[in-house]
Specification:
eight-stranded parallel barrel
C-alpha cells in the first residue's frame, strides 16, 4: 500500500519541472472581454459599499416600486445577477458554464435556498419536499454539464442540509449530541442503518413531531445522495452556524458510513470545515483519523468561514464563550494548520482522501500549490481549489491556466429566488467583499491598459 501511494504521487509531468510560484497579477484577465471586466469592477465596488449590503433587500423592494419589475429586473440582470449567477434556465446555465470551461474552470452548482422559511406558507414538509426536487434537478444538471466539452474531472455539487431538514430540528439534535453521554440512539451508525433499511426511526429523546420530521429528513437526504451516486456527482455539504454544525456533522457522518466506503468509489459526501472556529483543527484531525481507521473515503471542503459577525453577536447576547478565532491572523494560522493536516492525509491515503482548498486568499492558495509539489500530489488529482463565481477571477484563472483543478461555486435560478439569497450571502461575506480591493485594482489596471493604452 505504501509503495502504491508513493508511485501514485511521485513527481511527474508538470511537477517534475519544479514548483513555479503562481503570479496572481491579473495577467489572466486577457482571457476575458472588456465588457465582463467593466461589469466586474462596477459590481465589486458596489458590493464593497456597506450600506448597499446592509439594506440590500429594502433597496431591491424600493427599486421595484420606483422603476417597475421589468426595468428593475433588467438592471439587476445586467449587474449583480449577471456577475454572480449562471442564469435561470438549464440552457442559460449551460452557456455560462461552457464559458468558464473554455477558461479552464469547472462548475460547482448550488441551489439557492435559505436556512429559515420566511413565511407560514413555507413551514411544512411540502417546503422541504420542494427543495428535495430542486436538489435532484441540480444533480441531473450537474451530470449534464459534465458531458459538455471542457476540463474533465470529478463532478461536484453543493448541498445545504437545512434545505432538507429544519433548523429547529438541527438545534434540538445539537443540544442532544452535546450532552455528556449522548444517546446511542443518535449515533451515525443507527441513522445510517435507518436510511439504508428504509424502516421507521424512533428516538426516545425526541417527541412524536420531531421523530416524524427526522425520519422524513433522513429519507430526503438518502434520496439525494443515492441519486447523486447513480449520476456520479459528489456532494459537498455546506457548513452553517455553530448552533447547527454538530447536528449537521452527525448527519454527514451517517451519510458517509453508507456512501463513503471504499467499494463505493467515494468520497461521495464531503463535509465543510470552517477555520475561523477555534475547535476546527481538532475536529478535523479526529474526523480524518476516524475515517482512516474505518477505511472510509474522506472528503473535505476547507473554508475560512462566513458567519463571523453573527457568531460573535450570538455569543455576546447569550453570554457564552465566543467560538471564533480572535482575529484574522489567528484564522489564517488555523487555515494553514488544517491545510497541512489534510494535504498530509491526501499524500498518504491517495484517492481515498479528497480536499477542496476553498479560499480567496492568495497566500493560502500559493502555499497549497507549493505543498502539493513538495508532497508529490498531482495538479489534477484529489486536491482542487474553489472560489465564488464572479469573484477572485485573477486567482481562479491563474490556477486554471496552470493546470490545477478549479471550481466556481455557481448559484442559479430566477431573480426572485436568487437575489435575496445573494444579498444574505453578501451580508455573511462582508469581509470577503470589502477585501476584494486587490482584484478591483487589477481590473482597473487591465481596463486602463485596454482603453487608454496605460501600463
Amino acid at each position: 500500500m505504501l509503495w502504491t501511494c508513493r508511485v501514485l504521487y511521485s513527481p511527474a509531468g508538470p511537477s517534475a519541472r519544479g514548483w513555479q510560484p503562481l503570479r496572481f497579477d491579473g495577467a489572466a484577465f486577457h482571457l476575458k472581454g472588456t465588457g465582463e471586466l467593466m461589469r466586474a469592477l462596477l459590481v465589486l465596488r458596489l458590493c464593497a459599499w456597506p450600506p448597499l449590503v446592509t439594506h440590500g433587500l429594502a433597496l431591491q423592494a424600493w427599486s421595484r416600486r420606483l422603476l417597475g419589475s421589468r426595468l428593475s429586473g433588467a438592471l439587476l440582470r445586467a449587474s449583480v445577477y449577471g456577475q454572480f449567477v449562471a442564469g435561470e434556465t438549464g440552457e442559460e446555465v449551460k452557456d455560462r458554464v461552457q464559458q468558464l470551461q473554455r477558461l479552464g474552470l469547472r462548475p460547482l452548482l448550488a441551489v439557492p435556498t435559505e436556512e429559515e422559511p420566511d413565511s407560514a406558507v413555507k413551514t411544512g414538509e411540502a417546503w422541504y419536499e420542494g427543495n428535495l426536487n430542486a436538489m435532484l434537478r441540480c444533480v441531473d444538471l450537474s451530470r449534464g454539464l459534465a458531458e459538455t466539452p471542457g476540463p474533465a474531472g470529478p463532478i461536484l455539487m453543493q448541498l445545504k442540509i437545512t434545505a432538507l431538514t429544519s433548523t429547529w430540528l438541527c438545534k434540538e439534535l445539537t443540544s442532544r449530541v452535546r450532552r455528556p453521554g449522548a444517546s446511542v440512539e443518535l449515533s451515525p451508525e443507527r441513522l445510517a442503518e435507518a436510511m439504508d433499511s428504509g424502516k421507521d426511526l424512533q428516538v426516545s429523546c425526541l417527541n412524536a413531531e420531531q421523530n416524524r420530521h427526522l425520519w422524513a429528513s433522513l429519507s430526503r437526504l438518502h434520496c439525494v445522495v443515492q441519486h447523486a451516486r447513480t449520476q456520479h456527482v459528489r456532494l459537498l455539504v455546506d457548513a452553517e452556524y455553530t448552533s447547527l454544525n454538530p447536528a449537521l456533522s452527525l448527519l454527514v457522518a451517517a451519510l458517509a458510513l453508507r456512501w463513503n466506503s471504499p467499494g463505493e468509489g467515494g468520497p461521495w459526501v464531503w463535509n465543510t470545515y470552517q477555520a475561523y472556529l477555534k475547535d476546527t483543527h481538532e475536529q478535523l484531525r479526529r474526523d480524518a483519523e476516524a475515517a482512516d481507521r474505518s477505511g472510509l473515503a474522506f472528503g473535505v471542503k476547507l473554508v475560512r468561514g462566513a458567519y463571523l459577525e453573527k457568531e460573535r453577536e450570538v455569543a455576546r447576547v447569550q453570554r457564552t464563550e465566543d467560538p471564533t478565532q480572535p482575529d484574522y491572523e489567528a484564522t489564517s494560522q488555523s487555515y494553514s494548520r488544517c491545510l497541512e493536516l489534510m494535504l498530509t492525509h491526501v499524500s498518504r491515503r491517495g484517492p481515498l482522501c479528497h480536499l477542496m482548498v476553498a479560499s480567496h486568499n492568495e497566500e493560502s492558495v500559493r502555499h497549497a500549490t507549493k505543498r502539493m509539489w513538495e508532497l508529490g500530489i498531482p495538479l489534477d488529482g484529489p486536491v482542487c481549489f474553489g472560489q465564488l463565481l464572479g469573484m477572485c477571477d485573477h486567482v481562479s484563472l491563474a490556477l486554471g491556466q496552470a493546470g490545477y483543478a478549479v471550481y466556481k461555486s455557481i448559484p442559479y435560478g430566477s431573480l426572485e429566488e436568487v437575489i435575496p439569497y445573494l444579498i444574505r450571502r453578501a451580508q455573511e461575506n462582508r469581509s470577503v467583499l470589502q477585501g476584494a480591493r486587490r482584484e478591483q485594482e487589477l481590473l482597473s489596471q487591465e481596463l486602463r491598459r485596454r482603453l487608454l493604452g496605460g501600463g
